[in-house]
Write a structure and sequence with these properties.
By secondary structure, this protein is an alpha+beta fold. It contains five helices and six strands. The longest helix has about 35 residues.
């Protein structure tokens, strides 16, 4: 057994790091702590985003047609899958457009939350100028939260663009 503490800010970097752990098979991760077991195989890993419902995760697992892809674990709203390198590349979704669409949905929701928090912060600023400074403190917190949502949204956007072949925006507009 090998335990490693590591924090990643980019999913692709984490997937590449996991693939470089030759001779070790990941048993569990919570996004910070990684527990490996020694093995003779090399693996590629892929994260899939889902909306935190066990049913949706079950549906994703049923859609996987490649029997060589193994489910490792899930953390928060990300599920981690692996496949032995000798059996080919891992691709959980056969159509990259599905993965792009899921990530863009999450991006749009984070942008909307960021806008809501900016509006709440603005209203708190107005209240602070008329009532007392307690609302001024809450406005700062709302602005901070909106910044966090916008930063998270940009990472979803960046990650989703890695799956875009240039035709996805047209497909979304057409509703396919």
């Amino acid at each position: 057994m090998k335990k490693v503490m590591k924090l990643f800010m980019n999913i692709k970097t984490e997937q590449n790091w996991l693939a470089q752990q030759k001779g070790w098979k990941l048993l569990y991760t919570n996004g910070l702590r990684y527990i490996f077991e020694e093995c003779a195989c090399e693996y590629n890993y892929e994260y899939i985003y889902f909306d935190k419902s066990k049913k949706e995760l079950g549906d994703i697992r049923k859609q996987i047609t490649d029997s060589d892809i193994e489910f490792v674990c899930n953390s928060s709203s990300w599920a981690l899958f692996r496949k032995d390198v000798s059996k080919g590349d891992i691709q959980v979704y056969t159509d990259k457009y599905i993965k792009y669409k899921i990530l863009m949905k999450k991006y749009n929701s984070y942008v909307a939350l960021g806008v809501c928090y900016i509006c709440l912060g603005s209203s708190q600023t107005v209240l602070a100028s008329t009532v007392n400074s307690l609302f001024g403190l809450s406005s700062v917190l709302f602005y901070l939260c909106s910044s966090i949502f916008f930063i998270a949204a940009s990472s979803f956007k960046k990650y989703s663009l890695e799956y875009d072949d240039g035709s996805y925006a047209d497909r979304i507009k057409k509703g396919k």
